[in-house]
Amino acid sequence: MIVGIPKEIKPFENRVAATPAGVMALVAAGQEVVVECGAGEGSGFADLDYRQVGARLLPDAASVYAQAEMIMKVKEPLKPEYDLLKSGQIIFAYLHLAPDPAQTAALLGSRVIGIAYETIQLDDGSLPLLKPMSEIAGKMSVQVGAHCLEKHRGGKGLLLGGVPGVPKAHVVIIGGGTVGVSALKIAVGMGAQVTVLDISLERLRYLDDIFGDRITTLYCNGYNLSQVVAAADLLIGAVLIPGAKAPVLVTEEMVRKMSAGSVIVDVAIDQGGCVETIDRITTHSDPVYLKYDVVHYCVPNIPAAVPRSSTIALTNATLPYALDLATKGWKKAVCENPPLAKGINVLEGKVTCAGVAAAQGLETAYLSQFLT
């Protein structure tokens, strides 16, 4: 199979879908890999690095899409790439289709096989291809939140951990999954006062066992949420329903009650966001806006700020699945690898992911009908 790696075109997206080490593994497995010139530069990988491990360099994205049977990306195809898609082509990337009807329509119209990193799911419910980026986004959510609390960025002028005789900042994390735990580690490590909410009592017990009296755990219901959101200096949205739009948990009324200069970092923005006052997507070049005097940070590709670390972590996770797809073809690969089957979101003009279909009012097609 010819595997294509184009350069990412999302603003300030410096990651690339595979490191030279990943490309070397694909070539060693008998696959041909074509890479767009300059695709790895943002992550510190030169064209020569890819050429030396057996990749063929192509001058532009159009050439990559035209030749490749499988496209590996980091972020979803954007409008300038829609016309480059071709029927039967595998698109293997973070798609986040639920809140994106335009992209869904483009993938359906081109009849590609859209396999989303974020919905590949193991039997235990974990998301192995989303996990490394969630870990990075969770850690960075506290880092960027701390910067946003600085006065010149619109914040209260608070230091997360305070100093002796000065109160610590209150960090509230909604969701105790991968993003939430990663955020907890950094917030606790910086000495903040931390509260985490989740709907799973078992998860809260686990977090209490791990972090002890360094955190406060609360069951996530409307009452508890309204109380802690009002008291938060930094609020981090870390909720996820695989493949579906994020539920809106923090209402506009809750945000209105936050004190001026408080900060919201909604890591769930990729899936539509969990805060009602998040009404736009921001970028790394212009990451925040004010609403009710509260700083809103809504960048959908937070890990792109640390592309070297992110690209290596992403390749470590995606490579086994990419090898499966390239060496076996998508039909045999998903039949033999059930978690990979859950990654298929669109196929031959049909939506096969129930979460995407429900979010957009579309009919769900059963994957099994395409495998006979």
What does it look like?
The chain is an alpha/beta fold. The chain folds into 2 domains: 2-119 and 306-370, NAD(P)-binding Rossmann-like Domain (Rossmann fold); 131-300, 3-Layer(aba) Sandwich (Rossmann fold), CATH 3.40.50. It has helices spanning 20-28, 47-52, 61-67, 79-82, 101-110, 131-148, 178-189, 201-211, 222-231, 252-256, 307-328, 330-336, 338-341, 354-360; strands at 2-5, 32-36, 56-58, 70-72, 90-93, 113-116, 170-174, 193-198, 215-219, 234-237, 263-266, 288-291, 294-297, 344-347, 350-351. The strands form 2 sheets. The chain has an 8-stranded mixed sheet with strand order 3-2-1-4-5-6-14-15, sandwiched between helices. Strands 9-8-7-10-11-13-12 form a 7-stranded mixed sheet, sandwiched between helices. Helix 7 links the parallel strand 7 and strand 8. The chain is globular and about 65 Å long. The model has no long low-confidence stretch (mean pLDDT 96).
Feature tags:
single chain; alpha/beta; Rossmann fold; 372 residues
Tally of DSSP β-strands: 15
Distance between the termini: 22 Å
Low-confidence stretches: none
Main pleated sheet = 8 strands, mixed
Strand content: 15-25%
Strand order of the largest sheet: 3-2-1-4-5-6-14-15
